[in-house]
Design brief:
The complex is a heterodimer of chains A (183) and B (784).
Chain A (H helix, E strand, L loop, with lengths): L4 H13 L5 E8 L7 E10 L3 E8 L3 E6 L2 E8 L2 E8 L7 H12 L2 H7 E8 L2 E8 L13 E9 L2 E9 L4 E7 L6
Chain B lengths: L1 H24 L2 E2 L12 H13 L5 E6 L3 H18 L2 E5 L7 H9 L1 H4 L10 H15 L4 H8 L6 H10 L6 E2 L2 E2 L6 E8 L6 H18 L5 E5 L1 H35 L2 H25 L3 E2 H10 L5 H8 L8 H24 L7 H28 L11 H13 L4 H18 L16 H13 L7 E7 L2 H20 L5 E3 L8 H10 L3 H12 L10 H10 L12 H10 L1 E3 L2 E9 L12 E3 L2 E7 H35 L2 H25 L6 H23 L6 H23 L5 H24 L17
Parallel strand pairs in B: 1-8
Antiparallel strand pairs in B: 2-6, 2-7, 3-6, 4-5, 9-12, 9-14, 10-12, 11-12, 13-14
Helix pairs in contact in B: 1-11, 1-15, 2-23, 2-24, 3-9, 6-21, 9-10, 10-11, 10-12, 10-27, 11-13, 11-15, 12-15, 13-27, 14-15, 14-24, 14-26, 17-25, 24-25, 24-26, 25-26, 25-28, 26-27, 26-28, 27-28
Chain lengths: 183, 784
């Protein structure tokens, strides 16, 4: 059941004050388009105040940077680096796809609530943020609605899992883990 | 008088009929191109045609200024939402929304004909496999969610490539999805109304709705700036209408008050306005009958030109002040001089009709008909309206008492006039041709403010007018489109190497029919495509049957008709209309070039190749040349007009010596006025100054003729002289108020005529021969 805003503020404060180390991620994409689950691996890093860097190493080579409302994508395609720079404001439908994790890591409640209705479940020791994108103005029908919900799981100030359910039912589950210690 | 009633009745019936016809038939146009120069050379004609097409569109550029950045963005979003719901627009683009849905569908259906990404290889088994592998990689990328939207129907990304090409690289800065100017001072919006561009009432409604909705949303201190051809036309019409109303109200009031003060008779006031009213009505009627549409400038400019018709009753009334004879006799006595003056002015204005420009022809018809009607009304209607023994008591005796001695000694200043004329000639010679206005915009009724706003918003929207053009001309549309297509690769290369900043041409949006048919021929038959796709998808983890939409849509595209510019309406239709058009027996595609460092790298594409020619045009230089040609034509017209005036005068006076003496005044006055205008107008002179000078020339002759009457009989000093200074004062008051107008054309007219008529009075007084005992009118046309 949803809790009153006070614990949400506490969580946000905790997230804002916790140093977010570089983490590894493994994302499993289940899609109606493919008969196999696509597994993506890479490293994710958050730099305050609001830069999220996702570096994919497999199966594609890609660097995806979300800096504020600017998206920068550099992909290796056929031996060449192809870059795209996109203003999130130009494609508001994309915002719910990328803002959730970034704003959660930043502990930015206002930004979260600008894009989603936010529900916090569980305890600080083991929480789940349930994010449902706010309705887009009708003029943004270019992409239509991309995401139907985002669930972010965590313990204290650390994120452990991200579940994105796209509006066509496709699910992406990302597990985050500390890099295995090297000796 | 038995036929008095008949005359009066006839006149009233004529007026009523004219009014009825004008009200039912007259269509006021505001096509700004009517007064634009047409150009002499082919390049100039093409340039002016694209200018003309540019000003006929109806796209609206809107900017919200003032307030905080937050407010500018917020109000923009709310306004866009409200306007989208208003149903008045086919497109409201404030940063998102992009292309209208109907256009997206059209492009999507034709993507395999239009997209630059389409190749023959793409439909081969290997080509398809490559595309599918790329899409699989996309599904593993951060773009996955977005790419899925069109994956099943467009695995080769034909549509995305098409959109990317259409969008070009001219990106307007956005914040929170709202277009912003580079400095963030204005939030922007691009709108396309449904209403036709010629329906100014509907356009007015569009503009009013925008302003009204904006006022409901905006904070104090914020403003909504609008520009674009239709918005400007509405604003101009509104301004011309309100200014013309205000100015004609002021002018009428001034004339009426003055007539009352001068003659202390309400009847004089009423009948004094009659010739002007008849003239305006006749002018409107003649223009309505001669042209399908009457331009707003013709009306505003023409009505004010007719302001000098108040002179006619002024002369008549002054001669009713004293002396003997019936009203009719006294009107007849003054008529030959009045008629000669009117005829010369009419002749002068008819010369405008031969200038060969739409706007000036209208002005010519309007003023000729108007002045003729005003003069006729003065001669036949006024005497019929006034009792046979009308005597008007002149007022303002004190002014007469002071002015008369001054006028009597004025001839002593003869040498001064000579000196000033020499100075004026020097000024004109010094100025050379540099002080002529070279900006064609000055020939439009746009205010300076509207022009500055237009430039500002165009810069904000990254849609400036090009400084340079390549003109591709050929015998037909397809040939021109194919050649323009061939040019694109050169232009793209130059852009990549930084030798030019940007370019715009039809081929960026629409390939030639030839290219479209070629691409279409690459799409395999359905069964063939299905089998190739089956092989291509083998070994890839796509769900079976996933790409059926692609197979179906590609098959459908095999039978679509290639698109032509005619298939596009709305904003794009408007844009294409300026990027490709027929002119005379050729088709032209202007290619806009921005920031070209040197023409050298383009040299290889210039010149004639078979029936196709590519020429390079520097817009500014050509425009200046065009306006110069326009002004030269204006000067010719002015010269012809002046010559005609002199000829008529000679016919009227029958004596070369007397004609020369009468002509000295107008010639001197025109020279002095031209020199003063030269010194007073910072932007230089334009065509409308020349038209005004023509009027001044006509006035100069009137004044010279009447001043020369002063010597005829002793009574003339108490009848003709008061008419002269009263006419002068009325004209200065009426035209002086015009000089306050915000429309450059009206300011030019007002200032030139006020200065000119003052010089007419002063120079007329100085150069007159009061001692000449022969009456000017005696030998002029026999009365009848």
């Amino acid at each position: 059941m949803a809790v009153t805003p006070a614990p949400l503020d506490a969580l946000m404060a905790l997230l804002a004050s916790t140093p977010h180390d570089k983490v590894h991620f493994e994302e499993r994409r289940e899609s109606a388009f493919t008969s196999e689950i696509i597994i993506i691996k890479g490293v994710m890093e958050f730099r305050r105040p609001n830069t999220l860097i996702k570096e994919t190493t497999s199966p594609v080579q890609e660097r995806f940077v979300i800096e504020g409302h600017e998206l920068l994508l550099a992909r290796q395609q056929n031996g060449k680096t192809v870059t795209h720079r996109v203003q999130l404001d130009d494609y508001p439908a994309m915002a719910p796809l990328v803002i959730g994790v970034q704003a959660t890591l930043a502990g930015n409640r206002a930004e979260l609530e600008r894009h989603y209705t936010v529900e916090l479940h569980g305890e600080l020791s083991n929480w789940r943020l349930h994010l449902v994108p706010r309705e887009q103005p009708p003029e943004d029908e270019w992409f239509g609605e991309l995401v139907s919900r985002v669930d972010i799981f965590g313990r204290q100030g650390d994120l452990s899992r991200i579940e994105i359910t796209e509006s066509n039912g496709d699910r992406n589950v990302t597990r985050l883990y500390k890099p295995p210690a090297k000796h | 008088m038995p036929n008095r009633r008949v005359i009066l009745l006839t006149w009233l019936v004529l007026l009523a009929a004219a009014l009825l016809l004008v009200l039912s038939r007259m269509q006021v146009s505001s096509d700004l191109s009517l007064f634009l120069p047409q150009g002499a050379s082919t390049d100039q004609r093409i340039l002016s045609e694209s200018l003309r097409r540019g000003v006929q569109g109806k796209v609206i550029l809107a900017a919200i200024a003032g307030g905080s950045l937050e407010e500018r963005i917020g109000v923009n979003q709310s306004l866009a939402r409200v306007l989208r719901k208003s149903g008045l627009f086919s497109m409201v683009n404030n940063g998102r929304g992009g292309l209208p849905a109907s256009l997206r569908t059209l492009l999507d259906e034709h993507r395999y004909l239009l997209s630059p990404a389409v190749t023959r290889e793409q439909f081969s088994e290997t080509g398809l496999k490559q595309a599918l592998q790329d899409r699989l990689a996309d599904l593993a990328s951060s773009q996955a969610a977005v790419i899925k939207r069109r994956l099943a129907q467009d695995p080769t990304n034909a549509y995305l490539a098409l959109l990317a090409q259409w969008a070009g690289e001219r990106r307007i800065h956005t914040e929170r999805g709202v277009y912003l100017s580079a400095d963030g001072e204005r939030s922007l919006m691009l709108l396309y109304p449904h209403a036709s561009s010629s329906d100014l009432d509907k356009q007015q409604q569009v503009v009013d709705t925008m302003q009204q909705q904006f006022r409901g949303l905006a904070q104090p201190g914020m403003s909504l700036l609008l520009t674009g051809p239709a918005a400007i036309a509405v604003e101009t019409r509104e301004r011309i209408r309100s200014e013309a109303q205000m100015l004609s109200a002021v002018a009428s009031l001034v004339a009426m008050v003055f007539l009352f003060m001068a003659f202390r008779s309400w009847r004089a006031v009423l009948w004094g306005i009659a010739p002007l009213a008849s003239g305006v009505l006749a002018g409107m009627l003649a223009t309505t009958l001669a042209f399908t549409e009457v331009h707003g400038i013709t009306l505003a400019f023409g009505v004010t030109l007719l302001g000098i018709a108040v002179d006619y009753p002024m002369h008549v009334f002054s001669h009713l002040a004293g002396g003997g004879g019936t009203t009719l006799e006294r009107v007849r006595r003054i008529w030959p001089t009045l008629r000669l003056g009117a005829v010369t002015t009419v002749i002068g204005f008819s010369a405008l009709g031969f200038a060969g420009y739409g706007g000036l022809s209208q002005l010519s018809v309007f003023s000729v008909a108007g002045l003729a009607a005003a003069a006729a009304c003065t001669r036949w209607i006024i005497p019929a309206l006034l009792p046979a023994d009308t005597t008007l008591t002149p007022w303002l005796g004190w002014a007469q008492a002071r002015l008369q001695p001054l006028a009597r000694v004025a001839p002593r200043l003869h040498p001064l006039v000579g000196l000033l004329t020499v100075a004026a000639l020097f000024v004109l010679w010094q100025a050379g041709s540099q002080r002529w206005q070279s900006d064609p915009a000055a020939l439009t009724p746009l205010s300076k403010e509207a022009r500055a706003r237009d430039e500002l918003l165009r810069a904000d929207m990254h849609a400036p007018f090009a400084n340079e053009l390549l003109l591709v001309t050929g015998p037909n549309r397809e040939a021109v489109m194919r050649h323009a297509e061939a040019l694109t690769s050169t232009l793209q290369r130059l852009k990549q190497t930084g030798l030019l900043a940007d370019y715009e041409l039809i081929s960026q949006f629409l390939p030639s029919r030839h290219t479209q048919l070629q691409r279409q021929s690459w799409i395999p038959e359905k069964a063939e495509l299905e089998s190739r796709l089956r092989n291509a998808v083998r070994g890839l983890p796509f769900r079976p049957g996933l790409f059926q939409p692609f197979v179906d849509q590609a098959d459908k595209a095999r039978s679509v008709r290639p698109l032509t510019p005619d298939d596009f309406t709305g904003l794009l239709g408007e844009r294409f209309n300026t990027l490709l058009f027929p002119l005379e027996d050729k088709w032209v595609a202007p290619v806009a070039i921005h920031g070209l460092a040197s023409i050298q790298p383009l040299a290889s594409v210039l010149g004639q190749r078979g029936a196709i020619e590519v020429r390079h045009v520097r817009v500014k230089q050509e425009t200046i040349a065009m306006v110069s040609a326009y002004r030269d034509r204006g000067l010719q017209v002015f010269a012809v007009g002046a010559l005609c005036i002199a000829l008529v005068l000679w016919l009227g006076l029958r004596e070369p010596a007397r004609t020369a003496r009468v002509l000295v005044t107008p010639v001197t006055v025109v020279l002095l006025t031209a020199a003063s205008m030269w010194l007073l107008t910072p932007g230089g002179l334009n065509l409308f100054h020349l038209v005004a000078l023509l009027l001044v020339m006509g006035l100069g002759i009137d004044y010279a003729l009447f001043f020369n009457r002063l010597g005829e009989q002793p009574g003339e000093w108490t009848s003709t002289f008061p008419a002269l200074w009263k006419s002068w004062l009325t004209t200065v008051l009426v035209f002086g108020s015009l000089a306050l107008s915000s429309a450059p054309v009206l300011t030019a007219l007002g200032l030139t005529v006020s200065i000119g008529v003052s010089l007419c009075f002063v120079v007329g007084a100085i150069l007159s021969r009061p001692d000449d005992t022969r009456a000017a009118g005696d030998t002029a046309f026999t009365n009848g």
